[in-house]
Design a protein that fits this description.
This protein is of the alpha/beta class. The chain has a domain at 21-244: Aldolase class I (TIM Barrel, Alpha-Beta Barrel), CATH 3.20.20. Helix content is 39%, strand content 18%. The chain has an eight-stranded parallel barrel with strand order 1-4-5-8-9-10-11-12, surrounded by nine helices. Helix 2 runs parallel beside helix 3, helix 3 (97-109) packs parallel to helix 4 and helix 4 (140-157) crosses helix 5 (171-181). The structure holds zinc ion. Residues 120, 122, 130, 165-166 line the site of zinc ion (ZN). Mg(2+) binds at residue 233.
């Protein structure tokens, strides 16, 4: 007798019945760039990420309302300040763009939208690195103080989840302690546990104006050849108190997503980064790929690999299809 797997593929109904992985709106988180250099109601397109924008405060709030209405459960905010210095001082400004958007969105939408804020120094530093520098060295422990203060500032504004993306050692524990000591025990931490030093972040750095002014990020972000090291990073972050973890980028690191899901007992997210977005948009613009089908297949592959949720620049659009 010949075994015939094709019997389960013979029409759409049977394929629907036996499909193992489905993508839903509840899987999606939309990144939003808040630019303090724009007027409140302005938005400006990001050239290297067609279809994406940087938003002034009020237009970011409006965008969040639309996203919530479409059924997307959450947004993650990134800030672009008017002033940068060596210590990322503007990141803790209580009147900063991100802080304002957090408090306005929470006032308007309450629990109808999860507001996540990326916690890092690089968008706010003159040198573009994710920590304090001494010469060309990125100092770990000194940086933790500042990351704790940034997380606290977002917590005071009303954020639901803080998402440290810097890859300094010990930052999850530091942030957890600072939040708890200040009465924010219900603010969650989504750590970028396995974040690789990837060339796929290129378009984001345009968007967030966060390109390092010297050197690269290889002394703190992970080496692309390593997977066992990801286990170490993930286990450490969970031990330090991470409520959710992220693997970044997603598509070139699906093996890491799969492994993260296998070894951890907290929800795992995949961050489908700017380069993943822009390469598909560019190929679609040239007519080389069927845009919608490739986007769906890409996001489904991240979920199939094990992601419980996906941060994606397509979240708003895909929510309309699902
Ligand atoms: Zn950073």
């Amino acid at each position: 007798m010949l075994i015939r797997p094709r019997r389960l593929r013979k029409n759409q109904k049977i394929r629907d019945l036996v499909r193992e992985t489905v993508l839903t709106k509840n899987d999606l988180i939309m990144p939003i760039f808040v630019d303090e250099n724009l007027k409140n109601n302005e938005k400006t397109p990001i050239t290297s990420m067609p279809g994406q924008f940087r938003y002034g405060v009020d237009s970011a709030v409006k965008e969040c309302v639309e996203i919530s209405k479409l059924g997307v459960p959450g947004v993650i905010l990134f800030g672009i300040p008017t002033e940068k210095d060596e210590f990322a001082n503007s990141a803790v400004n209580e009147n900063g763009g991100v802080q304002k958007v957090i408090s306005k969105v929470k006032a308007e939408l309450g629990d109808d939208l999860l507001v996540i804020a990326d916690v890092c120094m690089c968008e706010y530093t003159s040198h573009g690195h994710c920590g304090i520098i001494k010469g060309e060295e990125i100092l770990n422990d000194e940086t933790l103080e500042i990351l704790g203060n940034i997380a606290l500032s977002y917590a005071k504004a009303g954020v639901d989840i803080v998402a440290p993306s810097d890859m300094m050692d010990g930052r999850v524990l530091k942030i957890r302690n600072v939040l708890d000591e200040n009465g924010f025990k219900n603010v969650s931490i989504m750590s970028y546990a396995a974040k690789y030093a990837s060339a796929f972040y290129g378009p984001f750095r345009d968007a967030a104006e966060s390109t390092p002014q010297f050197g690269d990020r290889k002394s703190y972000q992970m080496d692309m050849g390593n997977s066992r090291e990801a286990i170490k990073e993930i286990e450490l972050d969970i031990k330090e108190g991470a409520d959710l973890i992220l693997v970044k980028p997603a598509l070139p690191y699906l093996d890491i997503v799969k492994m993260a899901k296998k070894i951890s007992n907290v929800p795992v997210g995949g961050y489908c980064v700017s380069g993943e977005y822009s390469m598909i948009e560019a190929a679609a613009e040239k007519g080389w790929l069927d845009r919608e089908k490739v986007i769906y297949e890409t996001l489904l592959s991240i979920k199939r690999a094990g992601a419980d949720f996906i941060i994606t620049y397509w979240a708003k659009e895909v929510a309309k299809w699902l």
